[in-house]
C-alpha cells in the first residue's frame, strides 16, 4: 500500500461515523471500466475531515480527461454549505479547436454537471463553480506544435444527507464519473441518454 492510501485510511479511522460511512461508500462504488481511480492526499484546511480521489478516463491507452473529487465534512455544519458535507471537484479535458470556439460551451459544460446529478436522481444544494477554457499557441522553438485548447470545470455542491446523516456518496461519485466520461467524449451507457451531446472524442496523444 502506498503512502497516500495508508495516510487516508489512518485519517478516516478516527473520524466521525457518518464521514467514515460516506468514505466507505466511495471506496466500494462500482464504476465504468474506462475510469481509473485512486485515493490521493486531500486538502488539509478546508474542513475538519476530508477524503480525495483522482481519476482519469482512459480508452485505447489514451488519457481523455482527468479530475479530482474531494469529500469534505464538518460535523458542526457549515453555513455556506447548508449542511455538514460538501463535494468539491476539478475536471479537465483537451478540446477540439472548433468545439472550444463555441460561445455556449461554458453553459453546456455546467449543464453536464447538474444534468449528471439529476439523471442519477440525486438531491443536492448550494451548487457553485466555474467553467474555464484556455487556448495555447506555440512559437519559436515550439512552433511545430499544433494549437491546443482545454476545458476546466471547478465546482462544489452539498449532497443531501440520508439515514444517519450520511449522503449517498457512491451515487454522487457515479454521477461525477458520468461527467468525466461526457467531457472525454465517450458515449453514455445509461438507457435514455443517447440524445446527450458529448465532446468529440480526441485522437492522438495529449500533452499535460
TrEMBL record:
InterPro entries: DUF3000
Protein name according to UniProt: DUF3000 domain-containing protein
Organism: Streptomyces albiflavescens
Amino acid at each position: 500500500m502506498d503512502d497516500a492510501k495508508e495516510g487516508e485510511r489512518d485519517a478516516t479511522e478516527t473520524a466521525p461515523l457518518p464521514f467514515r460511512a460516506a468514505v466507505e461508500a466511495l471506496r466500494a462504488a462500482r464504476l465504468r471500466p474506462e475510469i481509473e481511480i485512486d485515493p490521493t492526499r486531500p486538502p488539509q484546511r478546508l474542513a475538519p475531515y476530508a477524503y480525495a480521489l483522482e481519476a482519469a478516463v482512459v480508452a485505447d491507452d489514451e488519457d481523455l480527461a482527468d479530475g479530482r473529487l474531494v469529500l469534505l465534512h464538518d460535523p458542526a455544519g457549515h453555513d455556506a454549505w447548508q449542511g455538514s458535507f460538501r463535494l468539491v471537484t476539478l475536471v479537465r479535458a483537451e478540446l477540439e479547436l472548433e468545439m472550444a470556439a463555441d460561445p455556449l460551451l461554458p453553459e453546456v459544460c455546467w449543464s453536464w454537471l447538474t444534468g449528471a446529478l439529476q439523471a442519477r436522481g440525486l438531491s443536492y444544494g448550494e451548487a457553485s463553480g466555474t467553467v474555464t477554457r484556455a487556448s495555447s499557441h506555440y512559437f519559436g522553438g515550439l512552433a511545430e506544435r499544433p494549437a491546443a485548447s482545454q476545458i476546466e470545470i471547478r465546482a462544489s455542491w452539498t449532497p443531501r444527507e440520508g439515514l444517519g446523516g450520511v449522503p449517498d456518496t457512491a451515487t454522487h461519485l457515479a454521477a461525477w464519473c458520468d461527467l468525466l466520461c461526457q467531457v472525454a467524449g465517450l458515449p453514455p451507457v445509461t438507457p435514455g441518454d443517447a440524445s446527450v451531446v458529448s465532446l468529440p472524442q480526441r485522437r492522438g496523444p495529449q500533452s499535460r
